[in-house]
Every structure is written in C-alpha cells, then in structure tokens.
Design brief:
The protein is an alpha/beta fold and 282 residues long. 31% of the residues lie in helices and 32% in strands. The model has no long low-confidence stretch (mean pLDDT 98).
Length: 282
C-alpha cells in the first residue's frame, strides 16, 4: 500500500508527497510532531500536519533568512533566533566568525530533541559553543530585552497555535526594543498567493511597518510551502537591505551557498505587481 503525506493548502488544493516510511510520530505539550522519509524530498518534518522543512529544499529558506540580513548589518555579534528548533538558521549563522552569541528560543523542547536525533542535516550546529538554547515562548522572552541583539530572526510557525503571538504588534514592538541601534529583524512572512495566506501576510506587514522605520519584503521559491512562493520581512532601525548590502564583504567571505548570492540578494527584493499591491493596501 502506498503512503502519502497530504497537506491542505486551500479548501480546493492539496499538496502530497509520497512517503517511504514514517520515521517518528509524537505529541508534545504544544503540537504533534511527525517525521517522514520520502524519495523526492528526503526526510521531512511536519508540525500539526503542516510542512516545516524537507531535506531537499530547506537550504533555500535557511540561506535566505540568514544571509540577507548578515550581509547588510556590519559586524553582527549577538543574535536571537525565535523558533527554528530544527537548527537550520543556526547552522547558517555559525558560519560567520563575527557572531559571538546566539540565543535560540524554541517553545517546544521536543522539536529540538527530535531534530537532533533525526535531522542532523539541520540540527548539526545546535551544540556550537556560541549557541544557548532557551525553551520558552518567544513572545515572552523578548519582553524583558533592551538594546541587546544586532539581529533577531523570527523563524516561526504560521500565525495560529503556538506561533500566533509572534505575529502581534506587541511582539514586533518588543523586538524593536530588544535590538541595538544597528539592529534588524527578519521574519518568515507567509505567502502572498492564496487569499487566506495573503491576509496573514498583510496583517504581519502592517504591524511591522507600524513598528520599524525601515521595512522591506523579499521573496524566495520554496517548493514545499503553499504555492511555493514565500516571503520574508526585513525590518530595521537604520540599515537598508539593498543600499547597505555589502556585496564585497560577502564575496570575501567565500561561503559556499546553494541559493543565496549577491544578485539574488538584490533581486529578491523585486516583487511582482500583485504582491506590491497587497503590501501597499495595508
Ligand atoms: N526552520 C523552518 C522551520 C520552522 S519551525 C518553527 C518553530 O517555531 C517550531 O519548532 C515551533 O515549535 C517554534 N515556535 C512556534 N511558536 C513559537 C513561540 N511562540 N516561541 C518560540 N518558538 C515557537 C518554520 C516553518 C515555517 C512554516 C511556513 N509555512
């Protein structure tokens, strides 16, 4: 018998991956956690039945959420990652020697435990000495922080369940406070394509532009997320994601990447007209 993982992307659209075998299934205090092996996408992680990452395409998401801000902000030392218990964002961050400290705030200890065991491709750097793991709700964690982080990466689930608070005005305001003068926040910003996702994306955008003087949206192609067209938000106090992009420094670093490069950095901020209109509407 064939086994398929199916995610409902809209009431009328599903996305399915043929599964070789189920690797893990468990229920944590916060969500249901599943891991599957597939021929096409390798091993993949779902939370409450929603796709979080696959071995095959996670590089796109993690490179774009990390390398874009890291090549705009100068001399990043302290980083806060909220969510991202799979470790993919941390894996990309530890490639920068300037970074002295990474606080990873993941609400669900079970996600980290399971990813360490079954997803070494992303979790491989969670034991780096610069990384401190905090099992806490990101919304609460940032409340008490002031002028502490050069970069905040919001690598969260979608705006329902435990991730809901990470799309609120209160949260963005507290991230602003937690950042240093040169600081920026980057978040996974949902998809513009299907109307239900676009509404969440617009709501997040409105709240971010109300909280930060500079804010731009950029895009990437992520095959296993709804519609495959995904957005990220870059919001900062002083640094502009294109004007302050340091392409020379990026090239000097000689980091090997599979998606991100200097042309993609600039090009990712060029948005289709319908997306621009959705963002202007808010
Ligand atoms: N790196 C790509 C994978 C993710 S996982 C997002 C993580 O955020 C999950 O491990 C989840 O447990 C954690 N999380 C959810 N809410 C909170 C919270 N309030 N505080 C801290 N961590 C939280 C992102 C997938 C994006 C999916 C896009 N469709």
């Amino acid at each position: 018998m064939e086994l398929w993982f199916t995610e409902q992307h809209t009431d009328n659209v599903t996305f399915s991956i043929k599964v070789d075998r189920q690797v893990y299934s468990g229920q944590s205090e916060f969500q249901r956690i599943d891991l599957f092996d597939s021929l096409e996408f390798g091993r993949f992680l779902t939370l409450d039945g929603y796709m979080m990452l696959t071995e095959k395409d996670e590089f796109i998401y993690h490179e774009m959420i990390v390398h874009v801000p890291m090549n705009v902000l100068p001399d990043v030392k302290n980083v806060l990652v909220i969510g991202g218990g799979d470790g993919g964002a941390v894996r990309e961050l530890v490639r920068y020697p300037s970074i002295e400290k990474i606080d990873l705030v993941e609400i669900d200890a079970k996600v980290i435990e399971v990813c360490k065991k079954y997803l070494p491709q992303t979790a491989c750097k969670l034991d780096d000495p610069r990384v401190s793991i905090h099992y806490a709700d990101g919304l609460k964690f940032v409340r008490s922080k002031k002028n502490e982080y050069d970069l905040i990466i919001v690598d969260s689930t979608d705006p329902f369940g435990p991730g809901e608070g990470l799309f609120t005005k209160e949260f963005y305001g507290n991230c602003f406070k937690a950042l240093t003068e040169k600081g920026a926040m980057v978040n996974q910003h949902e998809s513009p394509f299907y109307p239900k996702d676009a509404v969440a994306m617009q709501r997040a955008h409105k709240r971010i532009i109300d909280s930060f003087p500079i804010s731009r949206v950029y895009q990437a192609h992520i095959p296993t997320y709804p519609s495959g067209h995904w957005l990220f938000g870059f919001a900062s106090k002083n640094y502009h994601p294109i004007e302050n992009f340091d392409a020379v420094a990026w090239k000097k670093r000689e980091l090997k990447t599979n998606y991100y490069n200097d042309k993609i950095h600039v090009g990712a901020f060029a948005l289709p007209n319908y997306v621009k209109e959705l963002l202007e509407e808010v």
